[in-house]
Here is the input.
Amino acid sequence: MAIFNKKKNIEMKSNPQTDVRQSILEKLNENIKGTLYDNAILIPRFGYTIDIQVVKHEEKDGIYTLQTIFIIKNDYLSEKDEPIIEPIAAQGKDFDSALKMLTESFEALIWKPIKMMFDKGKALPVSSNYLGQHYDYDLYVNSVVLMGDPERKPAMLIYYIKDVLSSFLGSKKYYWVRIFLARQGTKGTEGYKQNIEVRINGIVCPSLNKRFQPYLDSWKDQDITVVEKQFAFIVNKEEEDLCPFTKEQVVEYTRKALPLMENCKSQEEAIKMKEEMDRYIGNPALSAEIRIFIPEILAKLTLGYNEGDDLFLLQPSPKTEGTEENTEENKPVPIRFAKTQLRSYYYIQQVLLDYLSRTRPDKEKVKNIVFNSVTFRELRKHIGEPNEKLGRPVEAKDLFVPGTAYRISIPDYKVW
Here is the structure.
């Protein structure tokens, strides 16, 4: 009797999804020259990791299609913000030609401006002045990636917003801008589709979207989908980031604040909550931002308000600063700046998205947080008001969040 069974010859079947992913990584790395490790490309000299998810790969009617999602992470450059997540599709007569198009698109769209940034290549100067702060930046941008119509000559998309871009940049060391335009069909017909989206560090900026509408309107009608995309990377010339808090701290403090705000039902409890938050946060300004923006963002996410860009900080009139409050002469002056210039806003919003999707809190708890907000009470005053321009009463979808004014009564308050 045999003690050991004879080992059978087992045919190992390859995983097509894994094989395609590996092929993309290897092709991409030919020019990037990083290190292939654990199904990703590591670029130690720049601190980047490039990962890929293959969404679709198929051959149909003689056309090979590749649809992928690129995930680009760099903890240092993005101050541990969300990674760049970029879907890229490519087509060709076979896998190799589709692969070539895919990798060339990625390099032109994202990798070349990143490399320019590190190699100190040609940059466009940008300056920002807001709330008594001044910053100078270098902007790095490469060509536009066009898909769908090889005969089109795309414009440099970044130029459509360059003159206002500075009003969206703040104290952070690095920013990235993503511009995406798409159009299909005949304008004015039922099948017409279009999409305009501008993001700064992952944050949607609706007011910047509007600047591209005339350009998109100038495109010719086509049955195919035509897409133009461009990335820009922006470096703050300040040597040191002096922000007194990190993303991790904002996330931790926001999570701690939610149960306190869920159960706050009186003025006395609100005062007690403020004192407790000030104590464990240790930064009264950040504590105030968290208390102000949790209800405002929840109102936007749950009650149908539109996505806005603007924040308005209320400050005393310079002529009457230090005089008695609540007088017409000393009426606070709202100073506009962008939500992308207040880094805590985005961090708080990310926590709240997770809070709603993962925790799934009771509606009453969410309502309690929102309805106790001064901001929400101001917004609610306008609901139902007649509006000549709209030709109907104002609804929640007509109002923007952010878009209201807030005040932080802390000496030398600085927007980070």
Notes: The chain has three domains: 14-108, 122-240, 247-406. The chain has a mean pLDDT of 84.
